[in-house]
Structure formats: structure tokens, C-alpha cells
Amino acid sequence: MGIKRKIQKNIQQRKIEVVFTNERLITPSGLSIVGGLLKKSEFVRFANRMPVERKRSEPQIKNGDILLSYIGLLCQGKTDFEAVGEMRDDPDFYRDALGIKRGIPAAETMRQRMDDIGSSLRKNLLQANVSMFRNHHVIPGEIPHGLVPVDLDVTPLDNSKTKKEGVSRTYKGYDGYAPMIAYVGAEGFMANCELREGKQHCQKNTPEFLRETLALCHQLTDKPLLVRMDAGNDAAENLGILIEDGDWFIIKRNLRHESRQEWLEKVRNCCKDIRHPRDGKTVYVGASWKDVSYKTDAEEEKTICLRVGYEVIERTIDKKGQILLVPDIEVNTWWTNLGWTDEEIIEAYHAHGESEQYHSELKTDMDVERLPSGKFETNELVLELALIAYNILRMIGQESLKHKQADKRPVKRRRIRTVLSNLIQFASHITEHARKIFMGMGCSNTWRYAFHSVWQRFAC
């Protein structure tokens, strides 16, 4: 009995006390990697050369410092301008980590200056994104058959119960914006983005956006592209742009006024690939051909015969075993110029759905959903800076996959939330000696080796 009491006394929980010290402990030490990735960006030099009005507060702070500070916030999953005040607790570290020349701006200065910049730097930001990939030799990954996927899609941003400029009813049933976003590579890097009003149809301005995206993607990789789009972008103009550019594509067809019953009767007579995955369900898979007419940039009229892949599903019994009085008919068709099998085309288009995960990481993990400004052009700038921040976090996550110390199972893509929590919010002890800054990594953090390897790759 005495031995038992002695053991219980030895394992008794020790008391914890909170004390204040003068040690420099930085939580988001991963911003040093972010600064290393941005160090060679040309847009910062361009932004610093922009004139700053003397009547503005803190005129000594250049526009480049404003943009770098906000990218630093985005890489921590923060979008509010007021969050920049957290950097002022230790401005020296954040200035050195992010490459800021003068100082950390106040929230009011950041808001005013970003209002002034608006959408004027769009082309420079997109080119800076390309140069970041090139300078660090990051190439978007390919899928089987050696093609690099390019996924274009609209994702509504919920900004309901606000009076922000451009907020209107989206197809999701709430008020907000409806930006078009393009992702490139098997990893899901962001190639382009365009903020749009919520009520804007997804095809409006898409041909111009598509041309711009293809030009950017050709700068990022020399390999052939596979462009995938939803039925909302089923337009002859889009098909013509892709054909003239020499790209491969899979675009979901919009049936419009085509009868599903007529499709079913048609494939019953000619389809050779008929499957019965379960009782009461029949799947017809095949392809047909259809002429498409479009105009080139030189206003030349062309007609081409394109392959139309189809998957027609007839259900007479639902998945719960209930017999249906009227058969349920589902028709899925795609435009494509690929020579793959029908099954490969269907699987490749279904892989397009992974872009929804990329949308989720942007809106949820990085908190780029309720945009911070009431001005449309300022929110455009926020989304364009989010493009750069998103790609930085994706690069860090993919590079960390090369070091398996922190992984318990095989991983193909590191989620942004994991990058933020384990590689950006990485606590370190900051000391200065011999004109150098040392970040001390604790021995209890299992991500320290992966962090050090990524830091050597991008920040050295």
C-alpha cells in the first residue's frame, strides 16, 4: 500500500506557471521562406518605383513594402488589414524575413495604399508569379500521357450581408463574388484569377481570360496542355481558341435543348460498350462526332469535326432497391480532341473535380472568402496577391514532401492548412550575432528537418 502511494506521488502533475521574458520568440518563422521565394520578384522593384503622394500617411513606406506585408499576412491565413499590427511587435524580424525596405505599415496606410493601387498591377503580378516559378526552377507536374492539366472554373465567394462594390446574387443562392480561377499542374498551382461580380455569367469575358491563361501556362511549362472546363463554358469560341493554340481539351457539353430520351434511344442502337454495374442500372459509354464552327482571331470562319464522348446512364431501380415507375436518365457528354479511350477521357474529366479542393484551400485555409475591402478594384488586388501567396504555400508544401520525416503515410500533395500550421507557424528563438540573425529550432518539433530542408531550397 505504501509503494502504491509513493508511485502516485511521483507521477503527480507538476504546477505550470506563466512568466514574461525578454527572449525573442517568433511564431511565424516560416515567413523567412516566403521572403526567400519573393526575393527575386520583379514586381517589388516595379512597385517601389511607383510615386507615393506626400499627403498620404507614412509616405516613406514604398508600395512594394505594402504588397510584401500583405502577402506575409496571406501566407499566415489572414486577410484583414488590421492583422498587420501583429507584425509591429517585432518589426525587425518581419522586415528582414520578407525583404521589406522601410518598415511595417499601419493598417490604415495599407488600406489607403491598396485602394490607390487597385487593379493597375494585374499584369505585373501575373508576370511576377511566372518569374517566381522560373527563378526557383519549379515546373508544374504532368499527368499520365505527359500532359499538364489546366483547370478553369468559377467559385463563388460568400460576401452576404455586406454592401461591397460588385457583390450580387451568385448561382449558389447567396450574395458575393464569382471569380474565375485557373489552376495548372497535377499539384494545383494557380496560374490566373479574375474577380467578377456575383451575377456575371461564367462565360462572359472567359475567351479573353482563356487566352491570357494559355499564354501564362506556356511560360510555365514547355509540355502540352490539357484544358478542362465545365458545361458553363461550352462555347464554340472557347473551342476555337484551344484548337488554334494547339492544346488538348476536355470540355463538358451543355445539352441545352437536347432530349435525354432521344440520347438513350440513340445509344441503345449504336453503343458497343454497355455495362451493368448493378441491378436496374445500365451505363452506355462511347463516342460520336459533330461539326463545330468558330471564328479565328483574324475573323476567318472555320469548321472542324470534333469527338463527342458520352456516358448515358439509365436507372430503373435506385441504389436503395426501390423500383422506379419512370426510368431515371442521366446524360453526360464531352467535347474532346484526344485519342484516348472513352474510359480514360471520363476519368480525366472526373479528375477536374479536384479543383474544388483547391478552391476550398484558398477560401477556407487561407480565409480568402470574405474579401476585406468595400472597393471592387482593391479586392481584385487582394485576389491577385492571394494568387502569389497560394503558390508560395503550395511550393513549400510540395518541397516538404521530399523529406519524409514528418509523414506517417505516403502523401502526394500537402494541403495548405498543413503548410500553415506546421511550416509557416513554426516557432523559433531569434538571436543576433556577428551581423547575422539565427533562428533556433526546438528539438521537440518533429517538422524541424523538413523546415530546414525547405529553407535551404528557397531561402538560402
Summarize the structure.
With about 450 residues, the protein is an alpha+beta fold. It has helices at about 1-10, 30-40, 40-50, 65-75, 90-100, 105-115, 120-135, 205-220, 235-245, 260-270, 340-350, 355-365, 375-400, 415-425, 450-460, and strands spanning about 25, 150-155, 155-160, 170, 175, 180-185, 190-195, 225-230, 250, 275-280, 280-295, 300-315, 325-335, 430-435, 435-440. The protein has a nine-stranded mixed beta sheet with strand order 7-6-2-8-9-13-12-11-10, with helices on both faces. The chain has a three-stranded antiparallel beta sheet with strand order 1-14-15, with no helix packed on it. Strands 3-5-4 form a three-stranded antiparallel beta sheet, with no helix packed on it.
List keywords for this structure.
alpha+beta, nine-stranded mixed sheet, three-stranded antiparallel sheet, 15 helices
Layout of helices and strands:
Blueprint: H1 2-10, E1 24-26, H2 31-38, H3 42-48, H4 63-74, H5 91-98, H6 107-117, H7 122-135, E2 148-154, E3 157-158, E4 168-169, E5 175-177, E6 180-184, E7 189-194, H8 206-220, E8 225-229, H9 236-245, E9 248-252, H10 260-270, E10 273-278, E11 281-295, E12 301-317, E13 323-336, H11 342-350, H12 355-365, H13 376-400, H14 416-424, E14 428-433, E15 436-440, H15 448-458
Parallel strand pairs: 2-8, 8-9
Antiparallel strand pairs: 1-14, 2-6, 3-5, 4-5, 6-7, 9-13, 10-11, 11-12, 12-13, 14-15
Helix pairs in contact: 2-5, 3-4, 4-6, 4-13, 7-13, 8-9, 13-14
